[in-house]
Design a protein that fits this description.
This is Thylakoid lumenal 15 kDa protein 1, chloroplastic. This protein is mainly α. Helices cover 24% and strands 5% of the residues.
Length: 226
């Protein structure tokens, strides 16, 4: 960028007219001691040659910069998921907005991992540590989340249909919006402080049972079932 700025901002000028200086006698101003003294000027061909080289260099750099920007734009436009990387200790692998159907995350530490809008059908999260992970608007149909630590996880707008949440700890998890738990196994799951819609709570209470092995809380009690 520094070179490009120099190319855009620098100007070189040449003056092919020689400068003349006259020296006069103070006693007789009309009689010059030296009528004219010509000062040497830079050789115009050399200046023009340097200027031409710099112009060519600037043009090359400008074209290369434009091509680089256009190439990057095309790559991200063709695959927007490359602009996002999942957080957490799973590393730099992209987990946001991806098709991760059947992916095995069993037993992994995925704290605050970003799975927003991803397809996670039949994915295995059994026993995984997913504290604060985001499943916002994700498709978890048929996923195995049994024995998983899901405290503070975000399931807002997620499709958790026919998933397995048995013995999972969802304390403080978010389930706002149109989150669906239809057909999900929740035996032994802990829903303490999970803000469920009334219709979802009523639905889950129909088949809620069991005791969470970690917290010791009964599933029905955590759902505030009547």
């Amino acid at each position: 960028m520094a070179i490009l700025s120099i190319c855009l901002c620098s100007k070189f000028s040449t003056n092919q007219n020689p400068k003349t200086i006259s020296f006069h006698n103070s006693a007789s101003p009309s009689k010059p001691i030296i009528s004219s003294l010509s000062l040497p000027t830079p050789r115009a061909p050399q200046v023009h040659q340097i200027q031409n080289h710099l112009s060519s260099l600037c043009e090359s750099i400008s074209k290369a910069s434009i091509l680089a920007v256009l190439s990057a734009s095309l790559v991200f436009a063709s695959n927007p998921a490359l602009a996002f990387k999942g957080g957490g200790p799973y590393g730099a692998e992209v987990t946001r907005g991806q098709d991760l159907t059947g992916k095995d995350f069993g037993g992994k530490t995925l704290i605050k991992q970003d799975f927003k809008t991803s397809i996670l059908r039949q994915a295995n999260f059994k026993g995984a540590k997913l504290l604060g992970a985001s499943f916002f608007d994700a498709d978890l149909t048929g996923a195995d989340l049994s024995d998983a630590d899901l405290r503070g996880a975000d399931f807002s707008l997620a499709n958790v249909t026919k998933a397995n949440l048995s013995n999972a700890n969802l304390e403080g998890a978010l389930a706002t919006g149109n989150t669906s738990f239809k057909g999900t196994i929740i035996t032994g799951a802990d829903f303490t402080d999970v803000p469920l819609r009334d219709d979802q709570r009523e639905y889950l209470c129909k088949f809620a049972d069991g005791l969470n092995p970690i917290t010791g809380n009964e599933t029905r009690e955590t759902l505030l079932c009547k």
